[in-house]
Design a protein that fits this description.
By secondary structure, this protein is mainly α. It has 2 domains: 10-197 and 306-333, HUPs (Rossmann fold, 3-Layer(aba) Sandwich), CATH 3.40.50; 217-300, Orthogonal Bundle (Tyrosyl-Transfer RNA Synthetase), CATH 1.10.240.10. The chain has helices at 23-37, 48-55, 60-76, 93-104, 107-111, 114-122, 131-134, 136-145, 159-176, 219-227, 248-256, 259-270, 276-302, 305-333; strands at residues 10-15, 41-46, 83-87, 151-154, 188-191. Strands 1-2-3 form a 3-stranded parallel beta sheet. It has a two-stranded parallel ribbon with strand order 4-5.
Length: 340
């Protein structure tokens, strides 16, 4: 099943509220959501329980950031008329299905997920020797299967998580649905165009590197960040020629600038025909054209938070309705429909 299939897909995707959203989130996730929401049945959720798998010692970060994140989604263009927008913990069926899956999932399935050891190595400052961290791919499986999703938009590093979900669905159907139609579909990984946008210093855009452009920041902050971006170290003086491929600004031009502009910037840099500030001004024009309408909408949306709360409340109800239908079938399958 592909994004171009004529039949609408049921799509599930979420984002952890662990800080301010930045251009990396917009280019890597939200723009794909915008394309998917028009022709598919989409469920987009704030993954607050997932945030606690690594930030359980600081749960206040979720409360501080979750509504800002949801406002960003709406400002970028996520449409609650086309997609179900909800908060994970407001649909407790996620946790119930996760618990039931934990009884039947072999421990080695979780231990072999590549991101498990990778993140323990990357987040050495945190104590991640918890079941919650080991089991978060299983919670993801519950998130996906509770809505019986057909596909999950992911980057390549998340494909093993979807494969685990497929194995869990297969195991459940094999253990409990023999002789009757399977309850859970085996969802596909929907590999969508990945953003090549780096951080301001050339590394991955991440708040931990302090190299982000936040969706919600004021334009003067963005302008200052871009003007002070590092460039090719060979260009010490205005008349020194440079190599665009060695400059983080060039990576932004590859995303934002036209082919003609890129040719002019490349020629101007390699011949010292333009200075680094001239090069950055071209980029700033594109960033302003893209970001200012979003930021204007964001201010307007944030001024009416009661409406945002209503949108999410309605989304929670729609998600809970779908999740409860699945759990009724799960309980019936497991012979758990007791009468007392």
């Amino acid at each position: 099943m592909s994004e171009n299939s004529n039949k609408p897909m049921r799509i599930l995707s979420g984002m952890r509220p662990t800080g301010k959203l930045h251009l990396g989130h917009m280019k890597g996730v939200l723009e794909n959501w915008l394309r998917l929401q028009h022709d598919n049945h989409c469920f987009f959720f704030a993954a607050d329980w997932h945030a606690l798998t690594t930030d359980y010692a600081n749960p206040s970060i979720v409360k501080e950031t979750i509504w800002d994140m949801l406002v960003d989604w709406l400002a970028v263009g996520i449409d609650p008329e086309k997609a179900v927008v909800f908060i994970q913990s407001e649909v407790p069926e996620h946790a119930e299905l996760h618990l039931l899956f934990s009884f039947m999932t072999p421990l080695p399935w979780l231990e072999r997920v590549p991101t498990y050891k990778d993140q323990i190595e990357q987040l050495k400052e945190k104590d991640l020797g918890t079941y919650g961290f080991l089991g978060y791919p299983l919670l993801q499986a519950a998130d996906i299967l509770i809505y019986r999703a057909d596909a999950v938009p992911v980057g390549e590093d998340q494909v093993p998580h979807v494969e685990l979900t497929r194995e869990v669905a297969r195991r459940f159907n094999h253990l409990y649905r023999q002789g009757i139609p399977p309850l859970f579909p085996e969802p596909k990984s929907l590999l969508l165009p990945a953003s090549k946008l780096p951080g301001l210093d050339g590394r991955k855009m991440s708040k931990s590197y302090n190299n982000t452009i936040e969706i919600s920041e004021e334009w003067k902050v963005t302008e200052k960040k871009v003007k002070t971006m590092p460039t090719d170290p060979a260009r010490v003086h205005r008349d020194d020629p440079g190599t665009p491929e060695k400059c983080p600004v060039w990576d932004f031009h590859k995303i934002y600038s036209t082919e003609t502009e890129r040719a002019e910037v490349h020629e101007g840099c390699t011949t010292a025909g333009i200075g680094c500030l001239d090069c950055k001004k071209i980029l700033l024009n594109h960033l302003e054209a893209e970001l200012q309408p979003i930021r204007d909408r964001r201010i307007e949306i944030a001024a009416h938070m009661d409406d945002v709360h209503d949108i999410v409340r309605h989304g929670n109800e729609r998600a809970r309705h779908e999740a409860s239908r699945t759990m009724e079938k799960v309980r019936k399958t497991l012979k758990m429909g007791y009468r007392v």
